[in-house]
Amino acid sequence: MDTHTEDGNTFNYFYGAINLIAIFLIVWFLWFVFMNPNTVMKLYTPMYGFSLVVALLAAIVLLKDIAGYYPFPERSSAAFGPVKRGLLLTIAAFLLMLFIVYLFFWGFIGKFGIAYFSPKSIIASGGMGAEIFNARENASTAIVYFLTAFLWIALFWNVGFGKWPWQQTNQGVIAWSRLFAVLFFSSIVYAIMFHPHVCYLFYPAQDKAGVLSWWEGLAGTASAFFGLGLVLCILFWIVASNLLWEGHPWKQYEKNGEGTGAKGFVAFILTFTLGVVILFVLLQIMNYFWYEPFTGGQYTDGADFRYIHAGEICGFFILAAYILKYYFNNFPNVKIFWLRTTLRTLLAIGGGMLFYWFYYSPLATFFLSKVPGIAQPGDTPLVFTILFLSVVMIQVDFFEGWPLRKN
Q1: What is the DSSP string of 178-231?
Q2: Which of 61, 276, 361, 364 has the most Cβ atoms closer than 10 angstroms to its Cβ?
Q3: Domains held by the chain: number
Q4: How many CB atoms sit inside 10 A of residue 78's CB?
Q5: How far apart, in whole angstroms, are the C-alpha atoms of residue 144 and residue 50?
Q6: Could you tell me if residue 134 is inside a domain?
């Protein structure tokens, strides 16, 4: 079945479906080798595996959205075809992932600055629970939180500001300037939204390094799952506006096709507001099925679980949005703008719920060796979602859809 794409070319939905099946098989193979708790690497502990996949996604976003592929080829050419270019960028992303986790956090920041970013530094500091498994889980948790802040600012910056205010300079200057700007604001977000919680993962609590969780009275929990869930809810709208809404409604604030300060400010305020709205809606739905959460509630009754679960649901929505955009041509492509964007958003939400059903069904128990049921200790759907999303982005952006993308 062929139909017209947004740019007027023809699109083959059969190839899109084959792409999706092939990507799922690749994700399953990677999960079997690296994450499955009963097979080879057993990295799904789950926070250790979580830190690695979110670092991989951060590396992909860094190469694509922050650096604009600098210093690598921006697109395939006679010298660098899609295969050579894809392999080069994939290797670079993998090496960046190793650098971020093992050298930057474990070997540098955790060794010379903030101890809880390094398992060895945590063990050396002593105290209850200072053994390798707990130390690695706590360090991985802190890394996940920091990289979540990084992803939020990086993806927002790309959608809102773009190359502004460095659009008149060369690509190298743009890449490094955006990187330092994103890291600066990511550090602020992390310090406010996540650092207080990490300081209280230890006994005794590091109360001189971090304040009590300021959001406890507002959220009903001191857990940073509140911030993690909120950020993921915001990210869904950033992704939806970029992929499904064709850059609107903030596209009208562009100047000569480039981002501006006004565009970035409006995009930040509106996506943040929409993130709060969808978080509230999802919490109300969970309250309907599981009743009100309460202090000390376990699993589905805990407020902390409700927030992270809202973020996990939005993670499924984000994955579905990418699949709809790149494997199903942003269907439907009707002429009325508001109608096609509304239908795409609803399809992304519906597709996300299909992933939700799959993950919590016996199929995922079989394919992923996950613990059956919802809200099980040590079960983090975001690891599967982010791994899937990373493979999708590698094929779409690094390999330019090779070998089955046909226009």
Answers
A1: HHHHHHHHHHHHHHHHTHHHHHTSSBS--TTTS---TTHHHHS--STHHHHHHH
A2: 61
A3: 1
A4: 5
A5: 7
A6: no
DSSP string, 229-257: HHHHHHHHHHHHHHHTSTTTTGGGG-BTT
State how far the Cα of 97 lies from the Cα of 117, in Å rounded to an integer: 15
- For the stretch 123-161, pLDDT in tens is 998 777 678 999 999 999 999 999 999 999 999 999 999
Tokens 């010379």, residue? 112
Q: What SS3 state is found at 128?
A: strand
Low-confidence ranges of the chain (pLDDT < 50): 1-2, 7-8, 406-407
List Cβ neighbours of 160 (8 Å cut-off, separation of 6 or more): 250, 259, 263, 264, 265, 266, 267, 268
Comparing C-alpha atoms, which of 99, 11, 117, 111 is closest to residue 55?
99
Helix (H, G, I), strand (E, B) or coil at 2: strand
| Residue 387 placed within a domain | yes
Domain membership flag for residue 333 = yes
* pLDDT computed for residue 135 by the predictor: 93
Domain that holds residue 267: 2-46+56-103+143-398
